[in-house]
User: Which sequence fits this backbone?
């Protein structure tokens, strides 16, 4: 149990008036959670303080060797003004896996959850009220040794910041076009694909920008060895409904084990669908499209929850999915997930964690 | 031509008294170079200011998505107190290649060199005097947009810091033991192996720490696809002299194009050696060792210049190189490179750039 020292801001910021203009991750709340790590001492000095810049020596490890990991979560406001989280223990555990790979000391799962809950509690007035809007929560850890040797740092900062963020689909769910990336890759076995480390995202920017210039919303990454098998899309996992079954890449080291991904798989299985987690060749997906069997395609992730795909392009060939509108299974997943998250339907899975008023 | 505004420190730090205890990249000089980038405006406000921390919002891109690149160079003091650089244009050009891959705006080669020269000039008293010690120069660029969207940033900081650093071989050249890494990889085609981006180093820490725990100085990375071909070692390139010829990995996207590497290749060719840049299987290297034909192995890099290897271990098999001492070609390369760098022998290649006194 962390002893979190709380220092409240004396000059609270103005809260956003127009929640329809929030966007994603642009405005931040009044406070942040911070905790330090020192080798030999462990994690210490857990505190909630006014949101403020870090002062960092230019030789701090994070600027040079990117020893940094993060998580992404949301807090949701229900109709009765309960503030709630979705499966926070999944994010806490995943951050431990990221930490292990990047040689960063683990944060205990219960401490991680306590820290998130405390900060969301202190800033609970910042959780948006409008439909589909939520408080995006960004826990992150970075190395703050000062020095240029390439080694695991002996000092780290764990910080959590929160950004009230608008509905992902401000103008209704809009199926997207996806570019199957054939040159750049996101991960390969033995690298860091299963983690949320900064380097994965830095390496992904170029392909994303090139796809966007061509009018595609996201990139679909193929495996890094053979460039044959689908892995994930942009910063989401991706699922394909082909001839009644749902296929998605197994999370075997190169694919991020998404919390929305596993939740959707559980729901799909509950509903009687067969879900195949394994290797799925892009060539087979394109063939399914030609055969009229590619019924639905959708991404899953914290930001969009479920994001329908209407078109794939691979090596110049276009595959069009369904009639271009969101498919019935995609819609049902979206409604069920968001229904539970915003408290509109009962949480039959035990996934929802309300944030109690303590502070 | 940059218009560099210079603000000198009013409280200079004490210079290190005992240069034998400098170590690497731990103490920094009185000043740093800083330049900002703003989309639409380009690079602007080039300045040399007292060495000081950055103040950065916790939502700054570099903490989350590691959009960051760096270079490594040295300034050397000669017997007549000339301060000189080694092929700075190679580092400037390589930083542009790193920038392109990471979607960071390029810094013009001449501006990069001017900035390095100006800072080294201002802090020239910090260049160590003792044999083998030098001023390590660390130019780096990081994204400093504030916001959590995964996109190329619209704002960057280019900073150069300098660290007086001790002789790499304080106690004489000591050949090292190398662990051939068989699980983790450093790069794969389509990723960022040819760049000096933070993410490459973050991903490499774990294998390095595991090897060190087992008594090895460095990891030898194999290719990311087949794990058959040697690529580089730790943070150096590596060369193998087998039966009279010198082999090293081609720099084809996954291998860092080292400045020391290309300089050594040029020297070797001048001296009449055949140098093969291509795919070299670790199995063939181990066979050459069994056949008594693995004559010399050495790493090349800015820090160590040339680092002899006395032992490789791959899948439990040990290959011992020569009699465990530095080989004649390795020694000749080391003597020639360091001779030119410290001005002890004539620069017959046009590689040396003296830093004029201007400031």
Assistant:
């Amino acid at each position: 149990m962390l002893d979190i020292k709380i220092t409240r801001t004396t000059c609270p910021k103005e809260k956003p008036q127009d929640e329809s203009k929030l966007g994603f991750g642009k405005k931040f709340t009044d406070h942040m959670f911070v905790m330090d790590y020192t080798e030999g001492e462990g994690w210490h000095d857990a505190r909630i303080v006014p949101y403020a810049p870090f002062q960092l020596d230019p030789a701090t490890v994070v600027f040079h060797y990117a020893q940094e990991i993060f998580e992404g979560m949301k807090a949701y406001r229900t109709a009765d003004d309960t503030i709630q989280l979705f499966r926070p223990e999944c994010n806490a555990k995943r951050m431990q896996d990221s930490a292990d790979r990047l040689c960063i000391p683990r944060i205990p799962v219960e401490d991680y959850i306590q820290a998130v809950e405390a900060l969301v509690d202190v800033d609970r007035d910042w959780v948006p009220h409008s439909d589909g809007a939520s408080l995006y929560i960004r826990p992150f850890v970075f190395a703050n040794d000062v020095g240029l040797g390439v080694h695991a740092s002996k000092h780290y900062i764990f910080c959590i910041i929160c950004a009230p963020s608008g509905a992902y689909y401000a103008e209704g769910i809009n199926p997207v076009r996806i570019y199957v990336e054939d040159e750049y890759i996101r991960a390969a076995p033995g690298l860091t694909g299963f983690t949320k480390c900064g380097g994965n995202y830095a390496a992904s920017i170029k392909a994303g920008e090139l796809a966007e210039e061509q009018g595609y919303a996201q990139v679909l990454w193929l495996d890094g060895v053979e460039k044959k098998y689908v892995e994930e899309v942009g910063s989401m996992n991706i699922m394909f409904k082909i001839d009644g079954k749902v296929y998605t890449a197994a999370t075997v080291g190169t694919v991020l084990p998404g919390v929305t991904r596993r939740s959707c798989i559980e729901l799909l299985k509950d509903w009687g669908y067969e879900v195949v987690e394994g290797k799925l060749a892009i060539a087979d997906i394109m063939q399914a499209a030609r055969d009229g069997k590619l019924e639905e395609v959708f991404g899953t992730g914290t930001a969009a929850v479920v994001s329908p795909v209407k078109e794939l392009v691979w090596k110049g060939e276009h595959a069009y999915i369904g009639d271009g509108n969101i498919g019935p299974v995609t819609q049902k997943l979206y409604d069920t997930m968001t229904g539970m998250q915003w408290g509109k339907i009962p949480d039959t899975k035990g996934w929802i964690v309300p944030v109690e008023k303590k502070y």
User: Anything to note?
Assistant: Residues 176-341 of chain B form a domain with the D-amino Acid Aminotransferase; Chain A, domain 2 fold (CATH 3.20.10.10). The mean pLDDT of chain B is 96. The first helix of chain B runs from residue 61 to 65. Chain B touches chain A through 63 residues (CB under 8 Å).
